[in-house]
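Let's practice the habit of predicting before peeking. Look at the sequence and jot down your guess about where helices and strands might fall. Then scroll down.
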Amino acid sequence: MELVQVNASNLSIYLNLTQAYEAEFSPLTKKVPDNDGKFALDTPVEGNVMGFLLYFDGVPAGLAAIADHGNSRYEVCDFYVVPVFRKNKAGQRFAHSLFSMMPGEWESKQIDGAEHAIAFWRRAIGAYTNDQYVEDIYHDAYWGDVTRQRFTITV
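Done guessing? Here is the structure:
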């Protein structure tokens, strides 16, 4: 497993994977592709949003978009592992690697109906924090009511 931060040389790989991510969530987001067959992105990698790619044996296997809100406060905006790689807790190991890289206050939010994502984040965060996290229903200005987990990673 290898994590690589997105930059100009690998941005196209990240953008390709985002299409699969957007398609997977389209039943919940109600998004449809544009005339070129592409989904619009909600979280571009720019400004305070960092992108990361997950690789297994040189093959792109996943992505994450993490917002850095300053003062060691981070938000998981997008997170995706290609279905064939969803075994052996690959997604959990990916998430844990990101947490370890950036100690501080974290939050993750899942849209209404994303039961598989909610279950994943409960397991991943719970395993990393020994179940020391807070979960609530939060009203997000963009997504409406979402399930949110908040937790702190210390060095």
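How did you do? The CA atoms of residues 133 and 151 lie 5 Å apart.
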